[in-house]
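User: Design a sequence. Structure:
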């Protein structure tokens, strides 16, 4: 196979478009989960919250306005085929230029700043960029606009092996319980298990890109997802923390081999405004 040349401004264009789409068009899977939840929710206040969230998504889509005032920090997962040759610039500058243009042209709030001086950069750059080199000659761009009400409620822990699966479950359910109304429930609970500290965290974030309702292909992990979902929904936190049956729309787990001496576990919470889109170049 020959080398495929891709000018980096193609990446800028795609990132620009995905920033606007992610912030204004809620995924079909999220809308469907909100509709299903409305039918299941027993609490009248909770039902009302679901009606409002569905209406909010409809208004945002038809009027092209943001789903939420917090338009998030951009997280980009890039899978770059090893037969791609990027030309006319560098990759990270191109991604950040796409974020700059998307947030400017979409009238989206700029939220990124220096962590110590708290001075806002004014254009929502830089994005957090995760890059993987894969076989082939294409580039997959998966982009999330991550709100920090839910990001702030996330946690990583490294347990001794004796902690076991019951310990993992207690940690995940306990995290959602302690978060209460802060992550803007109903949430999607992303869980990364294994690897090292940072690998578990990245897995938990990546798991949130999976469509709601899609189970992990490994039946044991899929079963664990369903068990956690049931336990979390028994907490009674409910939509927007106002009480009810539905606290989480789904639980997604991703795993990676780890060391004999540890069980790294990360929980990354996604609010109801589950904004992510992807595109192939
Ligand atoms: S956590 Fe999500 S829904 Fe809540 S304010 Fe932030 S982006 Fe909006």
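Assistant: Done.
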């Amino acid at each position: 196979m020959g080398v495929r040349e891709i000018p980096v401004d193609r990446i800028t264009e795609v990132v620009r478009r995905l920033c606007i789409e992610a912030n204004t068009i809620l995924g079909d899977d999220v809308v469907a989960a909100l509709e299903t939840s409305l039918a299941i929710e027993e609490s009248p206040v909770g039902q009302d919250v679901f009606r409002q969230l569905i209406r909010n998504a409809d208004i945002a889509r038809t009027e092209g306005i943001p789903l939420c005032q917090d338009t998030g920090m951009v997280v980009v997962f890039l899978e770059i085929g090893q037969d791609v040759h990027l030309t006319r610039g560098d990759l990270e500058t191109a991604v950040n230029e796409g974020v700059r243009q998307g947030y400017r042209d979409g009238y989206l709030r700029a939220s990124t700043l220096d962590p110590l001086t708290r001075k806002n950069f004014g254009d929502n750059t830089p994005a957090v960029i995760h890059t993987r080199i894969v076989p082939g000659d294409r580039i997959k761009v998966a982009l999330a606009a991550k709100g920090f009400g839910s990001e702030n409620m996330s946690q990583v822990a490294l347990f001794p092996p004796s902690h076991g699966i019951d310990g993992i479950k207690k940690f995940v359910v306990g995290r959602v319980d302690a978060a209460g109304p802060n992550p803007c429930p109903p949430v999607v609970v992303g869980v990364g298990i294994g690897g090292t500290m940072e690998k578990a965290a990245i897995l938990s974030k990546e798991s949130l890109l999976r469509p709601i309702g899609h189970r992990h292909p490994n039946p044991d992990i899929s079963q664990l997802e369903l068990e956690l979902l049931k336990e979390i929904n028994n907490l009674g936190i409910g939509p927007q923390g106002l009480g009810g049956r539905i606290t989480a729309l789904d639980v997604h787990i991703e795993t990676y081999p780890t060391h004999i001496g540890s069980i790294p576990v990360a929980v990354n919470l996604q609010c109801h405004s589950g904004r992510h889109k992807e595109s192939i170049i």
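Residues 68, 70, 72, 147, 149-150, 183-184, 271-273 surround iron/sulfur cluster (CB under 6 Å). The mean pLDDT is 97.
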